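STRUCTURE REQUEST FORM
Protein name: ABC transporter substrate-binding protein
Source organism: Plastoroseomonas arctica
Requested output: structure tokens
Priority: standard
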Amino acid sequence: MTESMRPSRRALLSSAVLATVGPAQAQAPARAPVRGGTMVMIVNPEPSTLATYAVSAGNIPPVTTQIYEGLLTYDWEIRPQPMLAKSWTVSEDGKTITFQLQEGVTFHNGQPFTSADVQYSFMEIAKKVNPNGPVILAELQSVDTPDPMTAVFNLANPAPYLMVSLSANNIPIVCKSVFEGTQPLQNPSANRPVGTGPFKFGEWNRGQFIRLDRNERYWKPGLPLLNRIIARFIPDAATRSAALETGEAHYAAYSAVNAADIRRMQANPILGSTTQGYGTTAATSVLEFNMRRPNLAKKEVRQAICYAIDRQFIVDNILHGFGKPATGPLSSVFTTQGFYTDQVRRFDVPDRLEIANRLMDEAGFPRGANGVRMSLFLEINSFGEQWLRQGEYLKQALGQIGINLTLRSEDTATWLRRCYTDYDFDINEPFYSAGADPVVGVHRHYVSSAIRRGTTFVNNKDYRSPDVDRLMDAATREIVPARRAELYHEAQRIMVEDSPGAWLCEVQYVTIFNKKLQNHTNRPLGTYSAFDRAWLER
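Status: completed
Returned output:
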């Protein structure tokens, strides 16, 4: 295997998955790249907005990371690499980071990129409206701009995790002159983005596609190679698979292809597959309990639900082997850093249903004449049919302990509003990506400071634990790895005991691509990074 084909340290979840998914087949082009052509990628579902700086839904970055860029990108080992920052230095005390910026970069509207745009993007956009900002940038006090090509970050305390959080999908750099004096979500560029990336926004035909056109003035010489990218929206799973199998589409990542179809598509001679490109995803399928509801405010009920679920059944029958059971809020991909532990309350015990029913009795919810103890709604994740299949299984599983579960499916915008703005839900069925560090993608789901009405994919559960807040705050600042690991171990034990949600499965995503599409996965962020070097054989 060549250096460029090396899987990242987080690429694969298990040897079983390794056995079923081949290496990234488009990492070493057989011949010189060809310029031109249109790449068609499937994005599912259609984004409700392209305001990636304010909304963290996973169907937005495949489009917006072609348009926006971050200060940094990352190699396969998640080591920082230059992007809009060409170099950087960190002070000895870790409290000052000085970025030297790329010269000669212009935004798609012709405005020059300067340190003023970096300052504005972090202090006025990311810290105020980015779902990750208040956690990732908690230590960032100010950004100085001593000259147009220098940005100096001043931190209250060292924040080593910050350097793995500066890609376009986490904190995109926006054009200050476009946003200044406006409300970010109401700004016209929210759905007509203006960035510095290799592709420019062209057209959004609602319900059909988004067209991105080659940036002829891109600052990287000779790039991009493609003329344009079409992001197609195809609601039906069978039609999405057919588009790939017939060659109408070239690329589909995350859950755009149903897990049930993957093995069949791997046998198609025109298609390839890879599990690379998910190096900082650490995706976990979870349930969120609305602890504002009196019945779900009882820990016994929440724990009973956790015991009722057979996670291995979900892996085998819903994910078709592309994943493994989860044990808590941190994915096992954090084992290499020492942060993960499975020494927590375990719900996968032989007598789990007996325990669950006993807990429901102790919580004061006896079975009625029809065997039902309570009725709840489950909000179905709108990002793919497998989540509906999972919901159907959960209805059966919870029925075993006397919970009548009603499944509710809605369009993405309505689902997000119900669960993260109106708090009008009982149980939500999202998944989240932990990122390259727990601070990046885990803290915001559990710390009380991340209870932010109207912000998606944060702590909507109303989970408030002073101990968890203290431990995670300390882990944010701790620079000694062993001590930081113990802080996370203790936090995991408390969270699993409290069970503000149920951690179901660590999901292994598989990208399906047409073999004519070359060099599409050359960074650990995969489809959450630009296809600037991708090209099509003709």
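Reviewer notes: Residues 1-29 have pLDDT under 50 and may be disordered. The longest helix spans residues 481-498.
Form closed.
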